Amino acid sequence: MMPGRLFSLPVALVFAAMVVPAHAATIEITMENLVIAPAEISAKVGDTITWINKDVFAHTATARNGDFDVTLPPKKSATSVPKKAGTVEYYCRYHPNMKATLKVEP
Amino acid sequence: MFTRRSAAITAAILLSSPALLQSAGAADQPTDPQIAHIAYTAGVIDINAAKQAQKKAKSKDVKAFAEDMLRDHEAVNKQALALVKKLNVTPEDNDTSKALSKQASDKLAELDKLSGAAFDKAYVANEVAYHKQVNGALETQLIPSAGNAELKSLLQTGLKIFQGHQQHAEHVAAELK
Q: Which residues of B are less than 8 Å from A74 in CB distance?
């Protein structure tokens, strides 16, 4: 019995850690032909944003409020996880005409 | 199709980019190998201008702009090279490419004499003018004349990105004043 009790706390922690990502969704945002799609999308704190650059050009996803700045080499993708709620306007630093909105819900 | 002349296109070129027309052999529509050469040459010109600016520019915004030009034009030209290889087309030198190169080397020499804020201003002003000229040629001459669909599509992507460059250059120019 003793070994069982001793293990119960670490096991509970492991389960707790697994529960959080199970609820988190993955949201895809694509940059193609110098357009960000979707232009507006919602995510929750803790979700994973997958940024997909389908162009032969390098892009960035740069939050105007400084929350994130993801660099995307040509034909590459990257991920980021929003940590706080709010509506974030972001754009590509290299191509400022590319802009979109990410709404992060708590 | 290549031999057919279009008065409307000629008139548009006349109005939008006199420097290109002077050299284009009047109303002759460029062939795909010539178009590939013109587009590639136009890219190399802006890459060289950006390299000069990286060495000489003073303003942070101008340096960043030059870096953007280098990155994008190298990407487009890499695509262009891959496409001509795939299509087994040999880019063909022509009067338009020659005129563009001559104009560009004159400009490089002119800008080389400047430094500091004067260089920044002149470089950005030329970037505005140059992108205007190239975009005009793409819209009215190169894209309509392109026969191969993939070449046409690459030119259209180029036009879109260069229109962004023109706006970006205009923005930087306004900030310098």
A: 75
